[in-house]
Amino acid sequence: MATWLQKVWVQRFLFLAAVLVLWDGFFRLGGYTGNLFASPTDVADSLAQGLRSGRLPEALLASLRRLVVGYGLSIGAGVVLGTVLAASRPVKNTLGALMSGLQALPSISWLPLALLWFGAGEGAILFVTVMGSFLAITVSTEDAVRNVPPLYYRAGEVLGARGCRLYCQVILPAAFPAIATGLKLGWSFAWRSLMGAELIVSTASLGQLLSSGRAAGDTALLLAVMLVIVAVGLAFDRFVFGALDRVVRTRWGFQGRAVAAAS
Prior knowledge:
By secondary structure, the protein is mostly helical. The chain has helices at 2-5, 8-30, 40-53, 55-87, 89-103, 111-118, 122-146, 150-158, 163-200, 206-216, 219-251, 254-262.
């Protein structure tokens, strides 16, 4: 029995079951009326209705499409700029100070400027998504490259690698485990920024469904969409970044260290 309870899927199932029981009990004992709260059954019905009507899948696909485009742009620009900041002291002393300052700015603060520049449409949402993750990836990449041991630089130069070739073939691969952590952090910022922008810009999206649920006082719809947003986050964490973590641990030898430490 004890061995059975130690299985991960059993623990997660029991935890989720307990959450649902407590949620339903809180709803029933609280005596909520109107649209102040919703029971698990109400949320399940709202999810089923959204799936049947196609409204929820359409909104989810629209948000994921924006996320892929915005996050992809953030990765490309952030990794390049972060590497340049780590490689060049003058760039670090000038542009680096600006990057550090802008990172403290909440991503949703870019939305008013985005609306002025691009209007209330796709351009504004994409801009806010990029700015939400680009700075985090840039700073994380800079730290990762800067913390590569000097031995790698000397070994690469001895083998004939110089300039861009040194960074592409030696330094960036050596820094990739730390860069991967920054990519995961950047994704979380991109997802949050996207949801914030979609709440205000009225286009087909998960954020727009949240806004519609608030306007209609539909708590069940709000909670249903929130559960979908959480599910997307869990899916990315497990299937995308979980796979990336396994590759990093295997390719860079961390898995062997973990096994040795456990033994």
